[in-house]
């Protein structure tokens, strides 16, 4: 409340002004807040960038804390020996690598993407401004979190990422430094396409294309109420899983730390149209929360239908998938959608990696 007599602020519950003694019943006036001015697109963009940088900072700190805590290292301050970096919202992987600005020619996706190079989306800003200035700092490895902006244009994402990894390693002295990265999370982006699933597939491919890399799977780290959010809130488990890679590969913990969940190996069709699915990394069986969801089967017609998946004794390392509307199963998918939240883990809590057996 404002005292109209002397102009000072007074508590809303006060009967008299503390400064001039005027009665608030006679001289009091309630404050009216000024209407909020609508933010311009530039202001909103700045806010998004700030939020993204804050998230990146939190991820870096959590990664360092988890690595130090698990390894029981006595340190006076939190520090990370890894370069932890993330794509700011709206930027492409191509522009984090010197020379890949010509990626439209090197990896022809069948489209002309030159029109997308704008604002921060340039090699000058992203590579020259954010990566190369750090090249004289000694680091132990890299942690990378990007991919959403390449949704819809992911045909050669894996090749681009491997080229980026090779270039960064060369800039930091040529050693095969560890490179650990994060899979993009489930996100509602329409059911008419599987563009986000295609990016995840490309990200998983990188593990088979170059050495000393590891992927954090995130399909189980989205709350049901935030599937609309391209940047879901659960960052601490991501940092923990990144730390697992570092502890296993670089700090002597080896197989004592599980780094990634089961990955599809093969499938066989049994009598009655039941599909037995084999995995790498499922030696200790599976953990399930509720019904096993996310599996789909298709026959030779290529029409996928939701399928039931179960475990059977005596072998806990395989799953049996079936849909009796699919007479003779030919193709199998797991969580191969834009937004399909995983509820299937190995015995150590690492989620099963999404996959498909078709190529269409």
User: Fraction of residues in helices?
Assistant: 10-25%
Beta-strand portion reads 15-25%
The gyration radius over C-alpha positions equals: 26 Å
| Spatial ordering of strands, largest sheet | 3-4-5-6
- Note the run of SSEs as H and E: EHEHEHHEHEHEHEEEEEEEEEE
Q: What is the helix tally?
A: 7
- Got a strand count? 16
Question: Mind describing the biggest β-sheet?
Answer: 4 strands, parallel
What average pLDDT do the residues reach? 81
Judging from the principal axes of the Cα atoms, what is the shape? extended
- How far apart are the termini? 67 Å
Low-confidence stretches: 48-52, 71-79, 101-117
Class inferred from helices and paired strands: alpha+beta
What does this structure look like?
With 360 residues, this protein is of the alpha+beta class. Helix content is 25%, strand content 17%. The protein has helices at 24-27, 41-71, 103-106, 123-130, 157-171, 195-206, 236-250; strands spanning 2-3, 28-29, 82-86, 141-145, 179-182, 213-216, 263-269, 275-280, 286-288, 295-298, 304-306, 308-310, 319-322, 331-334, 344-346, 355-356. It has a four-stranded parallel β-sheet, sandwiched between helices. Strands 7-8-13-12 form a four-stranded antiparallel β-sheet, with no helix packed on it. It has a four-stranded antiparallel β-sheet with strand order 11-10-14-16, with no helix packed on it. Helix 2 (41-71) crosses helix 7 and helix 5 (157-171) packs across helix 6. The radius of gyration is 26 Å and the shape is extended.
């Amino acid at each position: 409340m404002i005292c109209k007599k002397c102009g000072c602020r007074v508590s809303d519950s006060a009967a008299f002004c503390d400064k001039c003694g005027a009665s608030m019943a006679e001289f009091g006036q309630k404050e009216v807040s000024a209407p909020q001015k609508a933010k311009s697109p530039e202001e909103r963009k700045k806010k998004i960038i700030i939020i993204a940088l804050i998230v990146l900072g939190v991820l870096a700190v959590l990664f360092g804390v988890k690595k130090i805590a698990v390894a029981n290292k006595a340190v006076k301050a939190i520090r990370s020996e890894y370069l932890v970096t993330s794509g700011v919202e709206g930027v492409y992987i191509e522009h984090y690598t010197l020379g890949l600005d010509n990626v439209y020619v090197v990896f022809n996706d069948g489209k002309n993407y030159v029109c997308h190079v704008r604002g921060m989306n340039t090699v000058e800003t992203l590579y020259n401004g954010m990566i190369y200035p750090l090249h004289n700092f000694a680091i132990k490895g890299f942690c990378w979190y990007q991919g959403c902006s390449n949704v819809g244009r992911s045909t050669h994402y894996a090749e681009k990422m491997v080229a980026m990894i090779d270039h960064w390693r060369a800039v930091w002295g040529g050693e095969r430094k560890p490179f650990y990265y994060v899979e993009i999370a489930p996100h509602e982006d329409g059911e008419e396409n599987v563009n986000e699933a295609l990016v995840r597939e490309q990200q998983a491919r990188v593990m088979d294309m170059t050495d000393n890399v590891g992927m954090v799977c995130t399909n189980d780290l989205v709350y049901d109420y935030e599937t609309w959010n391209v940047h879901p809130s659960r960052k601490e488990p991501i940092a923990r899983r990144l730390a697992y890679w570092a502890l296993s590969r670089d700090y002597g913990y080896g197989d004592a730390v599980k780094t990634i969940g089961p990955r599809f190996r093969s499938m066989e069709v049994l009598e009655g149209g039941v599909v037995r699915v084999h995995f790498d990394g499922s030696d200790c069986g599976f953990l399930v929360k509720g019904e096993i969801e996310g599996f789909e089967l298709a026959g030779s017609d290529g029409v996928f239908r939701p399928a039931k998946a179960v475990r059977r004794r005596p072998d806990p390392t395989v799953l049996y998938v079936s849909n009796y509307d699919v007479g003779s199963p030919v193709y199998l998918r797991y969580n191969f959608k834009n937004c399909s939240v995983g509820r299937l883990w190995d015995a150590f809590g690492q989620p099963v990696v999404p996959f498909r057996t078709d190529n269409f």
